[in-house]
């Protein structure tokens, strides 16, 4: 190993090339040792991990030096009544935020006592939007119209790049001489960002050839990926999914120590009026908390929490109680690809019964989306209840802080 270290120091061996010269575990260990020497830091804590990394270092990360471990908890059981997920589930939640799992757990209990959350997927399509340069505004209009009129030709070009993805539609936008073509794909059980990118590139080259427009970038930010945006709230991206549950007045009082009217008022004044006053793109209490914890636990891209935070929470007064719902316009999840094959993350997907590709392609990803949406509903209920009962500070004092 000293010989390899000498070569790294001299520049004859690059850190990123170590896996070509030795087994993956040895490469990670040597790289970590070099960084320890360079920074004067003891990194032994990140050198302990249980996941097999041969595939990880080729598919999931570069210059690996170890693993950062995040505590994993469970909340549930949570009764879900979806079209793809139907049963009781224990939610795997990876977080360092004290009180979060306890909060979600309380919401799960209330939903299950109420008979379960009904969940429906309203739309399913991953987007990618190349941007083209036209010669003039009239040429830009011609390019947009050509794309709209030739969906079938573009579909053939795109689908030649994938065995599973399908181009299901497109929408065009222009800004002066810039033309954006927002392609939408059915990516089955994959989250599908890579699939959509490769397929969109093939379709974009056909547009170039046929219209004379110049492809500037395969992503022109009209997609809109990993950034807050109104377009993803309005048009959707990934799964658009809603979950709801009726809670009786008695259940609200016994579980949340408040009443239905207060629950509704907190939601209106906080999640709706407060968010509108702040010009927030999320009209919810803590949707990102649940989405982030489940994404990290289940091998999803955590940057897509941005789109998931677009959630809208509503509380409607009903006879004898309230109907509480969440709508996630842009939830991006998959059960194959990305981090879903890492052993620990795959175990959590297996616990939910959604790991890998489904017999009917796409069903596992849809089931997972329904479970996540029901988990978000549980989190919203619990936090609204804590705020209504004035218990939030007490919960964080007891569960979220190390000092007394």
Can you summarize this structure?
The protein has 404 residues and is an alpha+beta fold. The protein has helices at 2-10, 24-39, 56-59, 100-113, 137-149, 151-159, 193-211, 230-235, 249-256, 260-277, 287-297, 305-308, 343-352, 363-388, 392-399, and strands at 72-81, 86-94, 117-128, 131-133, 166-175, 178-186, 214-217, 238-248, 312-318, 321-331. One of its GO terms (molecular function) is hydroxymethylglutaryl-CoA reductase (NADPH) activity.
What does this structure look like?
The chain has 404 residues and is of the alpha+beta class. It is built from 15 helices and ten strands. The longest helix is centred in the last third of the chain and has 26 residues. The chain is globular. The two termini are 48 Å apart.
What is the radius of gyration computed over CA atoms, rounded to a whole number of angstroms?
Answer: 24 Å
Percent strand: 15-25%
Number of DSSP strand runs: 10
The CATH C-level name of the largest domain is Alpha Beta
- By CATH, the topology of the largest domain is 3-hydroxy-3-methylglutaryl-coenzyme A Reductase, Chain A, domain 2
Instruction: State the helix count.
Output: 15
Q: What characteristic shape results from the CA principal axes?
A: globular
**Class by alpha and beta content:** alpha+beta
Order of helices and strands: HHHEEHEEHHEEHEHEHHHHEEHHH
EC number: 1.1.1.34
GO biological process, one term: sterol biosynthetic process
Protein name: 3-hydroxy-3-methylglutaryl coenzyme A reductase
Organism: Methanocorpusculum parvum
């Amino acid at each position: 190993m000293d010989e390899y270290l000498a070569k790294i120091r001299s520049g004859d061996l690059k850190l990123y090339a170590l896996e070509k010269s030795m087994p993956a575990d040895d490469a990670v260990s040597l790289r970590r040792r070099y960084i320890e020497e360079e920074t004067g830091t003891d990194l032994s804590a990140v050198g302990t991990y249980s996941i097999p990394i041969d595939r990880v270092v080729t598919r999931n990360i570069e210059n690996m030096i170890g693993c950062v471990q995040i505590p994993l908890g469970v909340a549930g059981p949570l009764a879900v009544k979806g079209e793809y997920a139907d049963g009781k589930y224990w939610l795997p939640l990876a977080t360092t935020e004290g009180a979060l799992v306890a909060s979600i757990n309380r919401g799960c209990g209330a939903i299950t006592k109420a008979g379960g959350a009904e969940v429906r997927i309203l739309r399913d399509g991953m987007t990618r939007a190349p941007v083209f340069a036209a010669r003039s505004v009239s040429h830009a209009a011609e390019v947009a119209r050509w794309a709209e009129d030739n969906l079938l030709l573009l579909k053939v070009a795109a689908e030649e790049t994938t065995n599973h993805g399908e181009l299901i539609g497109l929408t065009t936008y222009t800004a002066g001489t810039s033309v954006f073509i927002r392609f939408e794909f059915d990516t089955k059980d994959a989250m599908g960002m890579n699939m959509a990118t490769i397929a969109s590139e093939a379709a974009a080259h056909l547009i170039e050839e046929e219209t004379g427009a110049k492809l500037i970038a395969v992503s022109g930010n009209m997609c809109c990926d990993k950034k807050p945006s109104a377009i993803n709230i309005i048009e959707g991206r990934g799964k658009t999914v809603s979950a709801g549950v009726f809670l009786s007045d008695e259940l609200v009082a016994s579980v949340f120590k408040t009443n239905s009217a207060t629950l509704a008022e907190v939601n209106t004044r906080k999640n709706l009026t407060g968010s509108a006053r702040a010009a927030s793109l999320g009209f919810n209490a803590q949707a990102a908390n649940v989405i982030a914890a489940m994404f990290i636990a289940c091998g999803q891209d955590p940057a897509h929490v941005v789109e998931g935070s677009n959630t809208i929470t509503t509380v409607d007064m009903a006879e004898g109680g309230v109907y509480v719902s969440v709508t996630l316009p842009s939830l991006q999840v998959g059960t194959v690809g990305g981090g879903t094959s890492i052993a620990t993350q795959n175990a959590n997907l297996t616990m939910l019964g959604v790991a890998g590709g489904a017999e009917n392609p796409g069903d596992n990803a849809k089931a997972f989306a329904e479970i996540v949406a029901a988990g978000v509903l549980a989190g919203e209920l619990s936090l609204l209840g804590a705020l209504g009962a004035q218990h939030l500070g007490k919960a964080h004092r007891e569960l979220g802080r190390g000092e007394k």
